[in-house]
Write a structure and sequence with these properties.
The protein has 347 residues and is of the alpha/beta class. It is built from twelve helices and 13 strands. The two termini are 36 Å apart.
């Protein structure tokens, strides 16, 4: 068994791999085995990997299974103590693995962790998808240390403390293989988006911890598969977020949260239509709500199992107030602003 397997899921990403895989191989040498799992790419990814990166191990999948099931199928073929799920558009840095592995080795109660994630485009800024550790608010809206909605902070060392979070970004997620499979892996029905939040929340419910470790740093391009503003991305984010809430919310919160989310989603859809003049995203939100209702019964057994696994300790990283209210009405634009508010976490 290998100690650490770095696994990059690829679909038609030859350009990104050729640019960023060299840093992964260089700065992981002697500490990890590097795999690329290919989701049946139609570009020259596989030929390029075989010719230019012969030390990288290939896993060839028979079709594009998406992010969630693609990783499930790839990881099932790998025998390692730790998996590190890494996006193909991530640039690693010297010594990036040492803080992650050292922390995990010495903290057996921690299931997963992430490094600090900064922008590959602007190195002094956090990157939108992950930044310095992930949270959600009472109504399921994700945010990070370093990013609230579209406000992304510059990194001034203000979040350089290792802390427990609700979720670690799927762009660079290190997880114990035993915990990954105990939680049944990523939910393949999500296809992509919110699947790492869902996995980490389920781990938290089971009493396992998730951390952000800013002593490790990587740079992420982001938006490589579905850029912001793509209706399919909007659809998946809204639908999957609702499915995740249905699975993971405790019984006493479920009815209230879902009622408020219904209202908020329709307000968001109207804003997209009337203010942004974005008909595609407007339709995507409505479709997401319809499909959530149609799919909800398929997740009843999942919800029962997840709630049955709940431990007594509170789950870290859930803001007990509305992020929308704090951001738009109270003017909170940074994670530090939120910390000044009472009642940061709820179970």
């Amino acid at each position: 068994m290998d100690k650490l397997a770095i696994v990059i899921l690829n679909w038609n990403g030859a350009k990104m791999l050729s640019k960023y895989l060299p840093s992964v191989l260089e700065y992981s040498e002697g500490q990890a085995v590097v795999y690329v799992a290919d989701n049946a790419s139609t570009d020259h990814s596989v030929d390029m990997l075989r010719s230019d990166f012969p030390s990288c191990r290939l896993i060839l999948l028979d079709k594009n299974w998406g992010f969630a099931e693609g990783y499930n199928r790839a990881l099932a073929q790998i025998d390692a103590t730790y998996y590190l799920l890494l996006n193909s558009d991530v640039e690693t840095t010297p010594g990036w693995l040492t803080p992650l592995l050292s922390f995990m080795d010495s903290h057996p109660d921690v299931a997963a962790c992430q490094p600090k994630v900064k922008s590959a485009v602007c190195h002094n800024s956090f990157e939108y998808a992950g930044a310095c550790g992930g949270f959600i608010d009472r109504y399921g809206y994700p945010f990070c240390r370093g990013r609230l909605f579209d406000t992304v902070e510059h990194d001034r060392g203000q979040y350089d403390t290792a802390i427990p979070v609700l979720w670690a970004t799927g762009a660079a997620l290190l997880v114990r293989s035993a915990d990954y499979w105990l939680a049944n892996g990523l939910d393949s029905r999500f296809f992509a988006h919110n699947e790492e939040i869902d996995l980490c929340w389920r781990l938290g419910i089971m009493g396992r911890k998730v951390y952000c470790l800013p002593g490790s740093c990587v740079y992420h391009v982001g938006g490589g598969t579905l850029p912001k503003g793509n209706p399919m991305k909007t659809y998946l984010n809204f639908r999957n977020n609702l499915l995740m809430l249905y699975k993971c919310l405790p019984e006493e919160d479920l009815r209230h949260v879902m009622r408020i989310r219904c209202l908020l989603d329709f307000v968001a859809a109207l804003k997209m239509l009337l203010a942004d003049r974005n008909v595609g995203d407007f339709k995507a939100v409505l479709k997401a709500r319809r499909d959530f209702k149609a799919m909800r019964n398929l997740f009843t057994d999942d919800r029962r199992q997840i709630q049955g696994s709940r431990k007594g300790s509170p789950v870290s990283g859930i803001f007990c107030q509305s992020l929308l209210w704090q951001y738009y009405a109270k003017g909170c634009r940074t994670f530090s602003d939120l910390l000044k508010r009472k009642g940061m976490y709820m179970s």
